[in-house]
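Worked example

This section walks through a single chain of length 192. The input is the sequence exactly as stored; nothing has been trimmed or padded.
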Amino acid sequence: MERIKKDLLASAELKKVVAETLSGEIYKAAQLIKESLANGGKLLLMGNGGSASDAQHIAAELVGRFKKERKALPAIALTANTSTLTAIGNDYEYASVFSRQVEAFARKGDAVLGISTSGNSENVVRALKRANELGAATIGLFGNEGGKAKDCVQVAIVVPSRDTARIQEAHIAIGHVICEILEQDLTRENKI
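Given that input, the structure is written out below as tokens.
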């Protein structure tokens, strides 16, 4: 019982730190995505492992619904198409699985969100660099001081932890906050 309490309290404490120190960055990220969606752009998301699942989860909240009935929002998880991922990984290299998709799908005015608990996932770093070259807004959800990826984004949300599980728990909470902001603001502004 004490072990369970310890883990849950550690998760809650990290989210409290995130609320106190990263609310400004979370707001900036939501505003970049909102501007993109309001102007006809889309959101592309990516990550590896648990972060791949988070990318798909956030995309699903936007395409489906988060809390309100509304029009679908264009969000694509670059982690979901196994044929594309394996073809690029086989024909090029795994480090290119997201940058090739960004090259195919991202346009100026879109938003690209990379998720990496270490901030050092080479495939995420390459994709964010390519998104910048294409003129897309770039946002990152990172941990571990942000790694190499923090210098590749316009807005870096760096969860102050080295514990992968706790970072991922904070990332999905941040993703939900962003979804709520988008849904509320775009609905209120009659953009969806």
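What to look for: Residues 115 and 141 are 5 Å apart (CA to CA).
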